[in-house]
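hey can u check if this looks right to u? its 155 residues, i copy pasted from the old doc so theres a chance i mangled smth
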Amino acid sequence: MLTGYLESYAFWLLLGLALLLSEFFFPGLIAVFFGLGALLVGALTLVGLVEGLAWQVLLFSLFSVGTLWLLRRRFQRWLRGGESDLAVRDPDDAGLLGMRVSVLTDFVDGVGDVQLNGAKWDAESSEPLTQGQTAWVVSHSGIVLQVSATRPNAD
């Protein structure tokens, strides 16, 4: 009785669906490939191309491990996106370097506020800057701009 059930297409289709659903609860991008293998064996069994438990298990193993080996790395990049090292990123990734800013407050101890594109930014400068003066962004650290009264050279 159990062998007849294991050979049926319904077992493989249900196993495939269960493995695909388990990926939502235990993500690791592994169960999905075994789920695809089970669904494929279930479909082949349903149309009568595969008979016998030994062939079903063999095909399940080959399909699952084969797709895991061939596609997992590609799917991981696609699903999780690319990663980059923050230390080697472009220092002007936000397009701020060289931008002209208006000084909103006098800089006290090298710290003040500037306006860039209509928004108020915290800024730092090694030069004394006063309200109303124009400055340029020479670098930034997160959301704090480092500004200078002298315009940087355009490359």
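Residues 135 and 149 are 5 Å apart (CA to CA).
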